[in-house]
């Protein structure tokens, strides 16, 4: 890679981070730049977006994410990447003592990266776009399960009681349209009708769905 490419690569990172008031060092790995277009692999893109999101977290959101991830399994492949002081805290404390501490940022980074699992590359590209710079994210999205209600590929596993971020259907394995779903308190057919008219399985669920959920995930065409 030529010096010119390295310089431009660093500049793209600086511009994007300046836009979100977050400092990020030059991205590692392969990054091919040509003219006004930047090619980035999926892992780099997600890492950069997670760092952006980290800088915008409210105290309430930091606390919520830390509590959700405080029980991370030591056998999790990502656990070994955490700094030793943080791993000691996880092993010996029931919860974080000060959610504002930068000590917890690596764990929050993991949580935020996880939120981009299954997100389509076009969405990542759009999020990374800069004025006058087109970013193209490349890489395998991976296999995702289709939500029985909204038909978006938003679930990591099927029939595991995961909640869809697009419509807020809890996937209990129900696939029959007129069978009552206990966790969802309605039939699948009713939930699909509500999603078409309300944008969520119930009126009360609208506040929990991702505002850009339909752009994040691929739609499974029947």
Automatic annotation (TrEMBL):
Short name of one Pfam family: Cys_rich_CPCC
Xref: InterPro entries: Cys_rich_CPCC
TM region(s), chain numbering: 20-39
Domain Cysteine-rich CPCC as annotated: residue spans: 147-210
Record keywords, A-Z: Membrane, Transmembrane, Transmembrane helix
Name of the protein: Cysteine-rich CPCC domain-containing protein
Lineage: Bacteria, Pseudomonadati, Pseudomonadota, Betaproteobacteria, Burkholderiales
């Amino acid at each position: 890679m030529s010096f010119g490419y390295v310089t431009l690569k660093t500049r793209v990172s600086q511009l994007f981070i300046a836009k979100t008031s977050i400092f990020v060092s030059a991205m590692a790995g392969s990054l091919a730049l040509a003219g006004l277009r930047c090619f980035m692999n999926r892992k780099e893109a997600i890492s950069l977006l997670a760092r952006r999101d980290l800088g915008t977290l409210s105290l309430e959101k930091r606390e919520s994410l830390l509590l959700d991830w405080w029980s991370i399994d030591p056998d999790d492949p990502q656990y070994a990447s955490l700094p030793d002081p943080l791993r000691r805290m996880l092993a010996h404390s029931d919860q974080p003592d000060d959610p504002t501490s930068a000590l917890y940022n690596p764990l929050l980074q993991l949580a935020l990266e996880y939120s981009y699992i299954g997100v389509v590359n076009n969405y990542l590209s759009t999020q990374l776009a800069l004025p006058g710079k087109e970013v193209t994210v490349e890489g395998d999205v991976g296999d995702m399960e289709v939500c029985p209600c909204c038909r978006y590929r938003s679930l990591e596993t099927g029939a595991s009681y995961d909640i869809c971020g697009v419509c807020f259907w809890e996937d209990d394995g129900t696939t029959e349209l007129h069978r009552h779903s206990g966790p969802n308190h309605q039939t699948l057919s009713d939930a699909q009708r509500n999603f078409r008219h309300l944008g969520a399985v119930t009126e009360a669920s609208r506040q929990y769905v991702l505002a850009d959920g339909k752009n994040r995930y691929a739609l499974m065409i029947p």
